[in-house]
Amino acid sequence: RLLQHVWSPFAARQMHRNLVFLGASNLSRGFPRLVSIAKSCFQEELTIFAAKGAGRSFGLESGSFGKKFPGIFSSGLWSALENANRAPTSALIADIGNDLGYEVPVDQVLEWVTRCVDALAERDADIVFSDLPVASLRALDGRLFGLFQRLLFPRCRLDQEEIVYRAEQLSDGVWQLAEARHIPVFTVPNEWYGLDPIHPRLRNLDDYWIGMLGKLGGFRAPSQRTRFTWPMNVYLRLLQPASSSYFGVQRCSAQPVGRLNDGTSIFLS
Q: Are the C-beta atoms of residues 92 and 21 closer than 8 Å to each other?
């Protein structure tokens, strides 16, 4: 009985995990799928901290279609994580090349990403990077490149050759950082991309998240997927971050902004 009494609090602490998701449009469009897959892969109560959003930058205030977010590193995610349960922590860092569309120098992007890694290291977090889609960008027809550039980054004046060159430099920097910090890198197979050079096809999104999560400690390949109903998918998509603006109007949401029936809490920043 004494051993059971001593072990029980320890076991309870081990049954909780913090998940940190950092990214932009890929994370935003695939967020419900990622949450459902994470629930299937980690047999623990989860607290999810996510900084996401189309057009999201790691360091600049940015966004798209009238909605803007603070830079990922300057968001409220880090204070929320600091105040969280000291449970095992795992982190996915995606969409690292997004800042190239804002003409941010490669060294500056790497500095922002490194600062995120440093903050996660203070929690002894397991981390995985998603590599940049260099081959997809290189192979894209020039006219399609111009179309996507005007749609996604209308103020960017860099041509395709320069964007590909910077993407190669940034990818090299990510791999060097990964090697120095012993962080695994997930490379998306080029065949997962269609005409869109930076977003894997919808049918490959599950494989994308499973591929990234599979490089983390504590991962267990799901024997059966938790699949959300469409109301839950809509619910997850409509969750609002702690701070954002829409056509200049500031919006704030109390956190955690989402709670699931199994005890999963969701903080968005």
A: yes
Instruction: Count CB-CB contacts under 10 A for residue 66.
Output: 10
Q: DSSP of 83-106, one letter per residue?
A: TS----EEEEE--GGGGGGGT--H
Cα atoms in the 13 Å half-sphere on the side-chain side of 194 = 6
Summarize the chain as % helix, strand, coil (round to 5).
45, 15, 40
* Chain length of the chain: 269
- Strand partners for 71: none
What tens digit of pLDDT does each residue of 71-104 get? 999 999 999 999 998 899 999 999 999 999 999 9
On the 0-12 / 13-18 / 19+ scale of CB atoms within 10 A, 154 is exposed
pTM, full prediction: 0.91
pLDDT (tens digit per residue) in 22-76:
999 999 999 999 999 999 888 789 999 999 999 999 999 998 888 999 999 999 9
